[in-house]
UniProtKB/TrEMBL annotation:
Signal peptide: 1-19
MF GO annotations: hydrolase activity, hydrolyzing O-glycosyl compounds
Keywords: Hydrolase, Signal
InterPro entries, per the entry: Beta-glucanase-like, ConA-like_dom_sf, Glycosyl_Hydrlase_16
Domain (GH16) ranges: 26-278
Lipid metabolism recorded as keyword: no
Protein name according to UniProt: Glycoside hydrolase family 16 protein
GO biological process: glucan catabolic process
Source organism of this protein record: Phlebiopsis gigantea (strain 11061_1 CR5-6)
CDD domains per the UniProt record, alphabetical: GH16_fungal_Lam16A_glucanase
Length: 378
């Protein structure tokens, strides 16, 4: 018997193959948002920020779905933090990894900002930096724009003269800052992002290159707002950031990527004295920590939160979803949550291993009887 899940899988898969569209393979939204993620549960030993990333048990007040169905991820702004201690925050990584052939769409209404605040939504391979890193959303302190970047081993460069609307920074992706691109579209970060109603990012992770688009709320194209089962990227035009494979071999520098969402405080970027002072004025030693992290943190962190409408992954086919070892995911993927909208399900069966029926149909499909199967499924 065909389960509803495998029917959905085959239909969306057929769409992807027959057109240049990408079909939904994972949907992080609504009450099931946090089911597909792992919580870090350790102090920030990655970027030297002044936070403890709580475990899932301790995250109930810092990572939750609000009454409007939006995922909230925030810095603790209610606890008194004594001098020399860290403030609680959140870092989560997706259980699923995504191969080239993936489009991630991130719709947010609010991004964390404020002096000392350093949020990011990004991706990384299972071995850093060997398997690469894509920074989709990142800003510090009172910056007014989003900064995108790739981080890789030596040998991956940003191309010159690419058709991107952002402003290219350093071109060597192996430097500590990475190969950066500054967003030039207005309202991409900070208070203006929130008052503008937020916006949407789409990232294409492809063997031909890596591309990031950004739209403020009023300009999100219908191809994005109406994308549920599939997404058509053909009318999006020039991306904000473009790193074509001509100067960076994507398969060589990037493995399957998992999504990461975190907010740290101060640390290696926000906390650097000159960078902190650039938008937060105080040039005193350790000002980032002393002015913000300690004491009640009430007003300092009133805006230090993500409000995420959804994060969706669309794939050239369902096989783009893998685990940390690169194996296609089984039916126990993130979508096992009953509240997920079926995307995890569509991520689950084309590997064939977990579902002999799907496997048989998959083989039939590959020998060219997809149109017949589509009718059978319907
Ligand atoms: C993608 O899907 C849309 C909506 O079904 C369709 O109009 C469009 O032609 C498709 N594009 C491609 C390249 O197949
Ligand atoms: C950070 O701490 C965790 C938990 O102790 C540990 O597993 C990990 O290796 C540490 N990472 C670094 C870069 O030190
Ligand atoms: C979660 O973190 C708290 C605070 O550090 C700790 O007491 C608790 O044991 C942790 N729980 C788990 C399940 O790791
Ligand atoms: C964290 O977890 C520990 C042990 O479960 C508990 O004692 C503590 O009150 C929790 N703290 C917060 C901030 O949730
Ligand atoms: C799935 O799509 C990826 C990316 O386009 C491609 O490399 C791979 O061969 C496809 N897999 C199948 C089973 O069609
Ligand atoms: C881009 O231009 C700079 C400056 O001329 C040069 O150093 C760099 O090698 C160029 N990058 C590529 C990928 O050609
Ligand atoms: C850049 O992209 C835009 C939008 O797709 C296109 O109209 C334009 O022709 C492209 N320019 C170049 C130089 O490729
Ligand atoms: C922190 O908040 C508590 C309770 O509201 C208050 O009594 C205390 O004075 C505050 N401490 C500082 C340093 O602002
Ligand atoms: C704490 O932060 C939340 C947003 O996460 C905000 O709504 C609330 O007003 C803040 N609390 C105070 C006392 O400022």
């Amino acid at each position: 018997m065909l389960s509803a899940r495998s029917a959905t899988t085959l239909l969306s898969f057929a769409t992807a193959v027959l057109g240049a569209n990408f079909s939904l393979v994972q949907d992080y939204s609504g009450n099931g948002f946090f089911d597909g993620w792992d919580f870090y549960g350790n102090y920030d030993n990655l970027t030297n920020g002044d936070v403890t990333y709580v475990n899932q048990t301790n995250a109930t007040n810092l990572a939750y779905v609000n009454a409007g169905g939006q995922a909230i991820i925030k810095v603790d702004n209610t606890s008194f933090v004594p001098y020399n201690e860290k403030r609680d925050s959140v870092r989560i990584t997706s259980k699923d990894y995504f191969e080239t052939g993936t489009i991630w769409v991130i719709d947010a209404a609010h991004l964390p900002f404020g002096c000392s605040v350093w949020p990011s939504i990004w991706t990384k391979g299972n071995n850093w930096p060997t398997n690469g890193e894509i920074d989709i959303i990142e800003g510090v302190n009172l910056m007014t724009y989003n900064q995108m970047a790739l981080h890789t081993q030596s040998g991956c460069l940003a191309a010159n003269g690419t058709n991107e609307t952002g402003e290219q920074g350093g071109g060597d992706c192996s430097t500590s800052a990475g190969c950066t691109v500054i967003e030039k579209t207005a309202n991409s970060y900070g208070e203006a992002f929130a008052t503008n109603g937020g916006g949407v990012w789409a990232t294409q992770f492809d063997t031909s290159g890596i591309y990031i688009w950004f739209w403020g709320r009023a300009n999100v194209p219908a191809s994005v707002t109406t994308a549920t089962d599939s997404i058509d990227i053909s009318s999006w035009g020039a991306p904000s950031a473009s790193w074509p494979a001509s100067s960076c071999s994507i398969p060589e520098f990037f493995g399957a990527q998992q999504l990461v969402i975190d907010i740290t405080l101060c640390g290696d970027w926000a906390g650097v004295s000159s960078i902190y002072a650039a938008t937060c004025t105080d040039t005193a030693t350790n000002a980032c920590y002393l002015d913000n992290v300690i004491n009640n943190g009430t007003s300092q962190y009133a805006n230090a939160y993500f409000e995420i409408n959804y994060i969706r992954a669309f794939g050239a086919n369902s096989s783009v979803v893998v685990d940390s070892s690169g194996s296609a995911v089984g039916t126990s993927a993130a979508g096992s949550t009953a509240t997920a909208t079926g995307a995890g399900a569509s991520a689950s069966t084309t590997s064939g291993a977990a579902d002999p029926t799907a496997r048989a149909l998959w083989l039939a499909y590959t020998v060219g009887v997809v149109s017949v199967l589509s009718w059978v499924v319907l």
